[in-house]
Amino acid sequence: MSNLVADLSALLDPARVLHSREDLLAYGYDGTAAMHGTGAAVVMAHTTAEVSAVIKYAAANRIPVVGRGSGTGLSGGSLAIPGCIILCLAQMDKVLELDEKNLTVLVEAGTITLTVSELADANGLLYPPDPGSMKISTIGGNVAENSGGLRGLKYGITRDYVMGMEVVLADGTIVWLGNKCVKDVAGYSMKDIFIGSEGTLGIITKVLLKLVPKPAAKKTLLASFARMDAAAETVSAIIAAKIIPCTLEFLDRITIKCVEDYTHIGLPLDAEAILLMEADGHPAAVEDQALQMADIAKACGATNVQIARDAEESVRLASARRTAFSALARVSPTTILEDATVPRSELAKMIRFVQDVGARHNLLIGTFGHMGDGNLHPTFLTDEKNGAEMVRVELAMQEIFDYAVSLGGTITGEHGVGLAKKPFLRKAIGESSFALMKQLKRALDPHNILNPGKIFDL
Question: How far apart are CA 176 and CA 165, in angstroms?
């Protein structure tokens, strides 16, 4: 331990090599409930050259390295492991270039997602990916996890906005992948290998992001339903009407109650589900789409449809969805926010299954998520100190993931695999795909020093 700290202190400012018990404890967590790890030292990198130097040292001495941003991950992807160097890029947070001619922004990996969003907005542009943790999550973490968000239905996810990146490989080599060209089919799309790789293939240090013109107008609606099936039918009918909202979110009954107790915004406590719908674009088109969506919701059985009159009311209605996790987290000592995705045609069936699982295992599960793209977040309100209940939680999770896969879905739409979903990955993607992922890992990280044990074991 003392040799490691001394060696790292020789590579960069000793004040940025943390090794106290308190520091190691703090950097042993991410946002995943009931999981913790302890590393040997924390390094606060300021430059790509420093990242490269640390990786070269780790490679020469076969020391595992766990990359880290703000630690908001929800699958244990950035948890420390015994003896590892925790390589934190949170202080590499500079915006390096805003190119309005090519609609791109170049940032360091530690740049906060909200910073990019606000910079784009101030220049009449939009950075669409908006994960729930965007006020504190970093761009590097978003890319490593391929984060989604509320606008995913219309605008896509993080992968769709990464045009290039700088990566430090497992031997310390620095590479640049991609460029500002809208079209580039020269060879393999190497940057895409690292998107969603959760720090197991390389450490992302800079990211070139695509921006889009900011929509001129937005309209927010909130619809209430006595049946979850009616909410699902509304989503299908909206899509069938050739309307692609920027946001199409849902909350179930448990989540509605928790949000209303938390925010007091007037949500209907007798509703089985609510849908938050937002249209954006040209003002005339937005007005037309909002009226169409309201009519469709009523035709599908909505008991009430509220259309925001102004921006202030839009923010108030949208807070029903954006505060869902915070509201649920107040209920029990431990909140386990999971995610699974199914084809949206199967979403009502999936939600009913989650409700049934909760009843059978005597668990309180609030469910909310992105109804437009089939991504739901079953949220377990539990207590990690209750061993018997945690066993039931694990059993319920297994059933939920198995059922999602049986419906043609997947075990994670946003949060990544990390440690939390690792036991379910092989079955979800199949033996051949699982073997191919391992083969790629061995090729790029032959000594298995980058975030070992995450996603799968070698």
Answer: 6
